[in-house]
From TrEMBL:
Keyword line: Hydrolase, Magnesium, Metal-binding
Organism: Nonomuraea wenchangensis
InterPro entries: Inositol_monoP_metal-BS, Inositol_monophosphatase-like, Inositol_monophosphatase_CS
Protein known as: inositol-phosphate phosphatase
Residues noted as binding Mg(2+) 2 in the record, renumbered to the chain: I90
EC number of this enzyme: 3.1.3.25
Record has Lipid biosynthesis as a keyword: no
Amino acid sequence: MTAPLEEWHDLAVGLAAWATEVIANGRPDPATSETKVNAGDWVTSFDREVEQHVRAELRRLLPGHRVVGEEYGADADAGDAAVTWYLDPIDGTTNFVHGVPWVAFSLAACDERGAAVGVVADVYRGEIFSAVRGGGARLDGRPVRCAQDAAVTGGVLLTEWSRQDAWPGMYDYLSRISATCGSTRIMGSCALALATVGGGRAAGVVLPGHYNAWDVAAGVLIARESGALIYDREGPHDGVPLHGVLAAPPGSAEELWRTWVGEP
């Protein structure tokens, strides 16, 4: 673990704490909020405020780093930056607009080796999950581990829609989970679903639908550093899968992966 990663981690945690306060105290109005890709793809003034502030701080404190955010895309003047920060100012904006308290802030720094620092803030619980590559996962600064005795049977399994649609094979997957007496939850935030596995609160998460790097980079690192295993559809994965990702403790990971891909 190198000193710069810890410095980036502390900066990211501070930005997450600031964002949590702004978002938690925000009251968006569905009548004045806007939509993007479709009528269920919301964006608010708080999404934009948080992203603008975080971008400005990263540029000020880490010149030469690149930022890619959900609302404003990639920095145009970053060139061949060695470090890219992936930012989702509010993951779960639909929940936020309608007052459902399952909303996250997500920020990850990635270098040539992949995800190096990740932070996911659970806004309404006031909790901050974080991780440094090789340094373990943390919850509000304290070490945290995935659920070592987790099992698909009787466990809580998380997934998400692909935007507002079912992902291919989703209903078959849900039926197979149900047959094991597992309980599926669809809560509305990819980042927070992954962090929840890292916090030891779920037996796994499967996200085969549409998402972007800013949705999952931080959460994947947190889950991995907590001891969880990461898979894509082909099997174990040592990076951040961008075309379907599974995170689960070692005790449930292979069974959950087989349930996802339909292998006996």
